[in-house]
Amino acid sequence: MARTRHRRPRPGGNRIRAAAQRTGRAAARCRRAAGRVAARARRTARRLRRVTVRFRRVAGQAFSASVTTADPVTQARPVRPVPRQPAFGGRFAGTGPGLPVLAIAAVMLLIVTMLGVERVTGLSVLPDRFIAGLRPPPKKFPVLSGSPPTQIAISRLDLRAPVHQVGIAPDGSIAVPDATRAQEAGWYDQGPTPGQYGPAVIVGHVDTTTGPAVFHGLKELRDGDEIEVTRADRQVAVFTVDEVQRYGKERLPTDQIFGDFSRPNLRLITCGGRWVGGATGYADNVVVYATLVRAH
How confident is the model over 42-58, as a mean pLDDT? Predict the structure, then answer.
């Protein structure tokens, strides 16, 4: 009878098989984790897209229109805003969210990575505006929860006036206080409330057919002047003036006025410059830039 030859098991074979099994299980866990990360990235991308569209709409509408002001003869009307551009154009429009989602996910991954670098090294490597709201607020100024403004006071101008809410007019421009409420200011309720991150916008008339209106003296403000805004929650947000600018109504720098979300800001806007009548009224807008310094 032929002798049966038995193969000797290779040394370490069981350990190799066990290691392979562990590797397979680890790979499966990685695939599941990658799936969860991808799902979170898609949800984050959808949220970011909604936020981006909203802010693009607000900035595009926000003072492409003018603050209406009247003289004894002609009632000025808001200037229509520039038509809104699609969020994603060209040959990628309408082809689904694949490329935009991947791009946004890549940006989010980069931001998270850079924040980790900042946390470890203590060095600031990302611009404040780019990641506003992701870092904890600096200690040199407060950040308040949302609450609509009810009153504005500027001691330099001996001004104290009620504030009510205004939205978007039927033509797509910012609505302004009615002429019968020319001694009141209007807070643009599609933006932040005073004290939240971003630029809270308060508009008002410069004059009417009967004389000066609520924001007649804005052009007299200087750097360092204080503006106090009382809110519905009874907190008072105190802002200091950074600068006062005048722009032609057709050349408003919307990014500069509405794009700073690095800290709580305030924008006061009225008409200015020379009277041209017709649909434009005054040729320019006066814009006061102010930042939050404290609250009580």
Answer: 57
Check if the beta carbon of residue 51 is closer than 8 Å to that of residue 57.
no
> Residue 212's CB: how many other CB atoms inside 10 A?
13
Task: For residue 254, tell me if it sits in a domain.
Answer: yes
Cα end-to-end distance, the chain, whole Å: 103
In a domain, 78, yes or no: yes
Q: Is residue 6 situated within a structural domain?
A: no
Average pLDDT estimate for 195-218: 94
Q: Specify the DSSP element, H or E, that contains 289.
A: strand 281-295
Whole-structure pTM value: 0.58
Q: In percent, how much of the chain has pLDDT > 90? A: 38
Higher pLDDT: 262 or 148? It is 148
Could you give the number of structural domains in the chain? 1
Task: Say if residue 53's pLDDT is above 50.
Answer: yes
For residue 138, tell me if it sits in a domain.
yes
Burial class from Cβ neighbours inside 10 Å (0-12, 13-18, 19+) for residue 91 reads exposed
CATH number of the domain bearing residue 195: 2.40.260.10
Residue 175 to residue 184: CA distance in whole angstroms:
13
